[in-house]
Write a structure and sequence with these properties.
about 15% strand; alpha/beta; 10 strands
Length: about 290
């Protein structure tokens, strides 16, 4: 069977509960298995039982770790292969588990489809927008990572942010190098970007930038906005399983290669009142 790699959020180990429902808009191991996928989860370096130092989804660290996982999947008798050493695989996951997808797929064409949920384009534009650190979120993330072993740049940036309100240029460059940034241009895997309209950590603009890069390169891409993410939804969001069903359908179409799966509109979003709209592309044409 094809395999789905499902990465966890920041500071968390990989999910091992084969019965639980998904959180933060993500799907669950159980649902993916019901739909005929093998599922691989893991503890990212520095978190859970993994050793090493957290490099914040660096292409040269966590990105290469996932490439090693792809090598491992290719050697398993249960795995469907496209060729020797090339497993039929997709990726899904939220937040930190979303960011690792774009970093990995930019470097490894063995990934056949992506579903990044509330991920980012650049840690510079998302965490240090207009040269202003998101102190509230940064302090939360630093606290959550306390049980892990993180790179000194993370703790240094946190201390500088709280003491002076600005970051050292070296730290800014370090976070910018974590990607994906311009690496998105190298992605060829069909990708569904799912982003929260009330997300104040990784705003809609992060998904829009990634979406435009893939669309302009003629990569199959779609974007779904839901009332959720790193924030609190105060309006209705319609079907609570809308995000999960869309993500699984994307994997069935592009990883299973099931052409009978209907993916729906390319752009699907809700407004501030909870009303749902769809469009053929983003941005929508100007109107009344």
């Amino acid at each position: 069977a094809p395999t789905v790699l499902m990465g966890p959020g920041w500071g968390q180990p990989g999910d091992t509960n084969v019965a639980a429902t998904g959180v933060l808009g993500a799907t669950s191991i159980a649902h993916l298995r019901e739909r005929g996928f093998n599922v691989l989860t893991w503890d990212p370096r520095g978190f859970g039982e993994s050793e090493g130092t957290v490099q914040v989804n660096s292409p040269d660290a966590e990105g290469r770790d996932v490439q090693s996982l792809l090598d491992w999947v290719a050697a398993q008798p249960e795995a469907r292969l496209d060729g020797e050493g090339d497993p039929r695989t997709g990726m899904i996951g939220a937040s930190y588990g979303g960011g690792i997808q774009t970093v990995t797929a930019a470097a490894d064409c063995r990934v056949d489809a992506l579903v990044p949920i509330m991920a980012w384009h650049s840690l510079e534009t998302s965490l240090y927008k207009a040269g202003t650190p998101k102190m509230g979120w940064a302090n939360i993330l630093t606290s959550v990572s306390g049980a892990g072993t993180v790179d000194p740049h993370v703790t240094d940036a946190s201390e500088a942010m709280n003491e002076t309100g600005v970051l050292d240029e070296e730290d800014v460059e370090w976070f910018a190098d974590r990607g994906p940034g311009d690496l998105v241009e190298d992605i060829t895997a069909p990708t569904l970007f799912i982003q929260g309209t009330v997300d104040t950590l990784f705003t809609l603009d992060e998904a829009v930038t990634n979406y435009r890069a893939l669309r302009d390169n003629d990569v199959p891409v779609a974007m779904l906005w839901y009332c959720g993410g790193h924030g609190t939804c105060l309006t209705g969001d319609g079907d609570p399983r809308r995000v999960e069903m869309a993500g699984v359908a994307w994997l069935e179409r592009w990883v299973k290669e099931d052409e009978s799966v209907e993916l729906g509109p390319r752009f699907d979003f809700v407004d501030q009142e909870g009303a749902r709209y769809t469009g053929d592309d983003y941005p929508l044409p100007a109107g009344d």
